[in-house]
Every structure is written in structure tokens, then in C-alpha cells.
Amino acid sequence: MKAAWYEKQGRASEVLTVGDMPDPAPGPGELRIRIATSGVNPGDIRKRQDDFGYGMPYPRVIPHSDGAGQVDQVGDGVSSEWLGKSVWCYGAQSYRPFGTAAEFTVVPAAQAVLLPANVMMEQGACLGIPGITAHRAVHAAGPVRGRTVLVQGAAGSVGFCAVQLARHAGAHVIGTIRTPAEEQTARQAGAHEVLLNDAELPAHVKALAPERIDHIVEVAFGANIERDVELLRMGGSIATYATNAAAPTIPFWQMVFKNIQLFFLGSDDFTPEEGSSGTRYKCRA
After folding, report:
1. Which domains does the chain have, with CATH numbers?
2. pLDDT tens digits, one per residue of 134-145
3. In a 10 Å sphere around its CB, with 0-12 CB exposed, 13-18 middle and 19+ buried, how is residue 170 labelled?
4. Do residues 104 and 26 touch, judged by C-beta distance below 8 A?
5. The Cα angle at residue 273 between residues 268 and 277, in degrees rounded to 5
């Protein structure tokens, strides 16, 4: 099969190789997908560049955890009914060496999800990390029905899905954006109100939510944590999946006095129950 891989970490232009590798075969409980579209996420890039400082986990890595295609082989214990089905997959390169940047990928059957006929492969390849992370970020602290949820970065891949999922779950959703050009995207996702993340954000949020925010979905933890704490009600919560600074400082005592819950979310490390729960909903791409 044709594949892209790296055997050392660094910039794509310096370390990626495209060539031929043996076709993989599914083992017990696994299935093989003929990849139509490979999804690239920031985490895939950071792994390749060793931004997390973990080094090379395997001698050779085919990158990308997300993708979509058709099942063409199944391993022992997997129903033959999967054969020929269009699917999207996640976690292909989570604690495994070979991801979706290839003609074929092999994943546990539990990490393949049927793709409806009216959903394009390109959309399916965008569902894994963004969709599951968004679902976990919205629900990490419990049900959000009747609560006010602030989604920071509502026009981003995770934020876009988080807005939809929070609205679907019955929350009042306020989305923040970086520039006015992103407003339409956030509104399309379903945000009740859309605000610029600027110096006026606290005043605008307090006007919309006098009782303050119940839960925040956070994309830039380091940059926003002080403002988030200011906006949260007593006993509020933050679920964060990314940061602008690797070692941010936090307003510890302010968080203590408000009894704030803080959830750090890494999509590679969700439990099966947390990860599979993200497949209950579909996000518009």
C-alpha cells in the first residue's frame, strides 16, 4: 500500500516519507478500512513535532488518528456484515503505530462507526477527535440542560461541535470568536449569542447571564483562565482540551473560593465509555 510515515520527529517537509509498505491485515476483533479521506488534527502535528516531549513511541509512525472509508477485511470475531460498509474511525494512531495516512488502516471494530449514506467521507474523517472531544467537554461536569454554557472558540473544529452538542442537550449557549468573520460559523452551529473574545467580553457575558456561567468549554486555557474564573458562578466548571501556553499559571485561590471544577481532556486517553458516547450524535461539518 501507499503510505506516509516518519521515523524521526520534526517538520513535515523534513521527516515525512511517502512510499510503499506491506498491506496490513486485521487481527482478532479488528477490521481493515480502505481509506478514502484521512483527517489531520493539531494533535497529530504536535506528535510529529514532539511538542509533547514524549519522543518516538514506535520506530515508524503512520500519522493521523481519524479517517473514513470502506471496510474491506475483518478479523476473527468480527461480523462479515461490516464488509463493504462506509465508516469513520477514530484512535487509529492512539497507542498504535499506524494511522490513517495510508491506503489502508486497521482499527479495533469498536473504533469504527457506520457513516450514513448522506454524509461525505470528508465529513466523516473530521468527526473523531473534534466530535468526541467536544462531547466530553460539554458533558464532563454532568448534564447541561437548563444551564448556561460558554464555548470559547465557537468557530473552531471542537468548538463548532461543542456548540451543537450543548444546544442539542438543552443548554443556553454563548459562543466566543476571535474575529467578526467567524460570527456566521458560530451562529450556524447554534449559539444563542456570539461574542468577540476581547476586553469587553466579561461585561457582555454578565449582561447576558446575570447569574454567571455554569460551564465553560475552553480551547485556550492559559490565555483565558483568569477571565473564565471571573465569569463562572459558584460551583461552576471548566473543561479544557488545549492551551496556548504549555505551563500556564492559574488563579488558585479564586478557584478554590468559588469551588470550581476543572477537567483536563485528552482524547487519546478517554475511557471507552467516554469515547464511545461521542458517537451518539453527529456534528455538521
Report:
1. 2-126 (3.90.180.10), 130-280 (3.40.50.720)
2. 999 999 999 999
3. exposed
4. no
5. 90
